[in-house]
Structure formats: structure tokens, C-alpha cells
Amino acid sequence: MTPPLNSETSHTVRKTLEFVQHHRLAKGDRLPSERELSERFGVARSSVREALAVLDAMRITERRPKSGIYLRNAVEDGGLEALVLQADLGLTFDPQVTRDVTEARIICEEQALRLACQRRTDADLSKLHQTLHAYASTIQAGGDMAEADVQFHLALVAAGQNRILVRTLTPLMLMSRRWRERYFESEAIRHRSLADHRDFVAAIEARDEAAAATLVRRHVETAAADVRALAEQGGAAASQTNTT
Amino acid sequence: MTPPLNSETSHTVRKTLEFVQHHRLAKGDRLPSERELSERFGVARSSVREALAVLDAMRITERRPKSGIYLRNAVEDGGLEALVLQADLGLTFDPQVTRDVTEARIICEEQALRLACQRRTDADLSKLHQTLHAYASTIQAGGDMAEADVQFHLALVAAGQNRILVRTLTPLMLMSRRWRERYFESEAIRHRSLADHRDFVAAIEARDEAAAATLVRRHVETAAADVRALAEQGGAAASQTNTT
DNA sequence: TGCTTGATCTGGTCTGACCAGATTGGTAGG
DNA sequence: CCTACCAATCTGGTCAGACCAGATCAAGCA
Asked: Are A204 and A212 in contact (CB under 8 A)?
């Protein structure tokens, strides 16, 4: 459900991003020609072009006719969609990005939840209970917690009746999907998370803005801290990338 | 500076989106095959594929191997980047989207400005003054106000030291670029806007969070109301799209 | 009626070709 | 020795056509 790209295109996009990272290319630098990339990656030029069309649309690269392919921004400085793509591809970013994502999530989600308290309909409420139930089931069944978590938070935000806010938060959620996968390996965390989610729904049901706001902050901040701890402890191997 | 896509790819993307709109395709509906699209649009299949790669990456379409191309979401329900693309292409959306964008902008921008008040450096401040000056010059020279406005607001947000928030707000800004173009045709509005911007910088310089917050709300809400009035008055022709 | 089978359609990928500018290297002229 | 000009080369943009392997579905056989 997550991978948006075709196998080969996705593969080539990944290869290209890796190339950029590996060669420490900076904004304005020129990439090898399409023909050379296709040779280097062992795919046809048409495949390279598809990947470049995607990178272009994401404003990561810029193709200048008769000239070459240039890096529009550093890999870490594209659009949000670009970040999601990188997260999907398993590329990591520096800690500052993680902190910024957390902060942005708290900001957007807190306000969204306030709106949800004001505007939620009974339909939203039953949807929330349903999603909450699905969440609990996923814990029982040992299913995809990261996915269930994303779905729950998005349902929460959706109750705020602002589709743009939902779209804004979606990439922020998807971005931390990878981290969450490891995060939910702990049973204690899974259950604490479920308890938090119950509180969320209760707050929205009671239209208690203050409670909801406090909950988000604590929930997201705690989760972020845990993930950070996990990253430092478990995976020095997976934690570094270029920081210019 | 805005158009991110190559001529032909952009052209085909536009044609495809128009096709979807014209035929009132809904989520899950199937588009014509690549071969038929290429024939219909009068371009090679490879060009269609590039466009589809972009639409795929934006999660607007989904290509199922050996099956067909399907609409992942209604055109109005893609990612933020997709909305920007549509705005760039001159496609309009329903009023609810406009309202949601305004609300989301206020939420994100208010919090970003609060952060800016706390964290802005002297470098940020001089950058802001510089951007403000450029803004005033653009008014004098009769330049691209929409662009200058976007740049100013992004500089404002950037002072909050959260790159993710900047990236979040960028599409929201770009999205309303079209509307802004007409908006800034009024001289009165141009000057009121400049005055507002001066106040913004002053508030951030004084680290006055409350003032900054009040300013954003009033500034964005007023602008949105004006644009709405303009849309209702001037262009019934340009205001409707499908609302399902 | 029900099941099998093969023609057809679809996206995925590759090869190779041509175009028109941009770039660049070398050579002819000063 | 240096300058100026021109042609070979390189680049992205686009097109045409081909093959593959599943998916689909209708026709035909049991």
C-alpha cells in the first residue's frame, strides 16, 4: 500500500539518489548524462528518463535541454514528498530533520485536534472507535503496527474537517513510518500507545481541546524520544548520512 | 522559475488531468491504456509513460502491471504537490479547498512565526529586511508581486529554524499563487500588504509572539476574503470545478 | 452447463534512431 | 603566439517499434 512507484522506476530513483549522496553532490552540481546513468545502472535510457521525470517533479533535479541534469536542491532539501520517497527507500536523514518533523507534527496535529474537538461529527466518532478497534486488533494479531498507527492518527486529524491539514500531515506521518516499525517492536510501547489512543478518542468525544492538545504533545514527544534512544542505542550503522 | 516539468511531460500531465476531469473519473476508475492515451494526445508512448510516472509518484494514478491505469484518488484528493501542480496548470478547485488552505496556512504560519520570535537570529533579521526591501522594490518596479509575496512569507517562516515547516508551507503558498496574481492587481492592496509585512518584521524583531500571531490571522484572513470577493465578482467562469 | 484454452490486451522494459541546440576542441588566419 | 571561427561531439527531447509475461475474456470443447 505504501510503495507508490513501479519496481524499475523506483529502483532507478533510488540508485540516482544514492549516486547523489555517494558523490556528495551539492545544489547546482551536474549529474552524469542520461546515457551514462542508464549504462551505470544497467537499465534502458527510457527507464532513467522515467525516474528523472519523477525527480524533476519533486524538484530534486532539473533537466536543462542540451545541457545536462542538475541538482536543484541537496537531497535533504527537496519537497516533503521527496522526503517521504527517501524514507520509503530507506535513506536516512540527519537528526535535525527528525526533530523538525516532530515539531511540525506537534504543531499541525495539535491544531488539527483542536478543530476535531470543535467539529467532529458522530460519524467521525464512530470512525475513530472503529479505527481504534482495528488498532487493538492489529496488536493482538501482530500485524503492521506502523500502518495502523498512521491510519489512526490520520483518522484523528480527519475529524477536524480540514482536508488540507490531512494532506499536510500525511507525509509527516509516512516519513516516520520506518522509525515506527522498530519502535513498535516493544510490547510495552504497543500497549502504552494503545492507551494513549484511547485517551485521544475520549478527549475528542468530550470535545476537550486542552486535554487533546496536552495529549498530542506528550504522545509525539515521548514517541520521538523513544525512537531517538532506539537509534542511538541500536543502530549507529543506520543513523548517519551526510550532514554537509 | 515555477514550472518544474519539461514541456512535453508537463503537457501530457496536464492533458491527462484534464481527461480525468472531463470524463468525471472517480477514485478507482480506470484510464485508457498508455497506447490509447499516446494516440489521443498525439505523443509517443514513452512521453505518456513519463507523465504517468509523475502522476504515480504524486499518488494520483496507479499503474497495475498487465491490468491498466487506475485513479488512486479523485484529482482533488491527491497530495499537496499534486494540488500545486494543478494550480500551476490553471485547474481550479472548489471553495472548500480554498478555505482549508487558508485555515492550514494560518495554523502553520502562526506557529512558525511564534518560533521565529523565539529563535530568529540577527542573520534572519537582516534577511527579512532585505526581502522586505525587495518586496517594496517589486511594487515600485511593477514586478512579479505574487512571487515576491511567496518569498517574503517563506523568509518569515524560515526564521523559525524549522525546515520541515518551511517545506510544509511552501506548497500552501505556491497553491494560492494564481489567485494572488489577480489579487495584487489592486494598488491599494499592494500597499496595505506592504504595511502588513513591515509589521511582521517589526513583531519578529521585537520578539512579540502575540502581535505576530494576531497579524498572521488578520493578514491571511483578509487576503483570503479579498480573493474570494474577487472570484465571486470577476470570474464565475473560473470558479467552478467538479464537487462530486 | 461448465471447464479449458488460446487470442488479445496491458503495463514493463529495451534498442535504436533523429533532432536541435550547447559545448568544445582544433585548426586556420592574423 | 594569440585569436577567431567552424565542425565533430555531446546532451536532453521525442519518436517508433519490438518483445515479454501476466491478466482477461470469449470461444469452443466436453
From this structure: yes
- Residue contact A164–B97, C-beta within 8 A: yes
Which of B2, B13, B107 should one mutate to test binding to chain A, selecting the residue with the greatest count of A CBs within 10 A? B107
**A29 CB closer than 7 A to any strand D atom:** no
Residues with CB under 7 A from strand C: A 6-9, 42-47, 66-67; B 31-36, 45-46, 49, 52, 63-69
Nearest 5°: the CA angle B182, B184, B185 is 70
Closest Cα in chain B, distance from residue A165 (Å)? 6
CA distance B118 to B126: 16
Q: Domains of chain B, with CATH numbers?
A: 7-81 (1.10.10.10), 92-238 (1.20.120.530)
What is the β-pairing status of strands A68-71 and A61-64? antiparallel
d(Cα A210, Cα A145) in Å, to the nearest integer? 28
- Nearest 5°: the CA angle B169, B59, A154 is 60
What H or E segment, with its residue span, contains residue A38? helix A34-41
- The DSSP code for A31 is E
Min Cα–Cα distance to chain B from A143, Å: 24
SS3 B36: helix
Averaged over successive runs of 10 residues, the pLDDT of chain B (244 residues) comes to 54 91 88 95 95 89 92 70 69 79 94 97 96 94 88 94 92 80 86 94 97 95 84 52 34
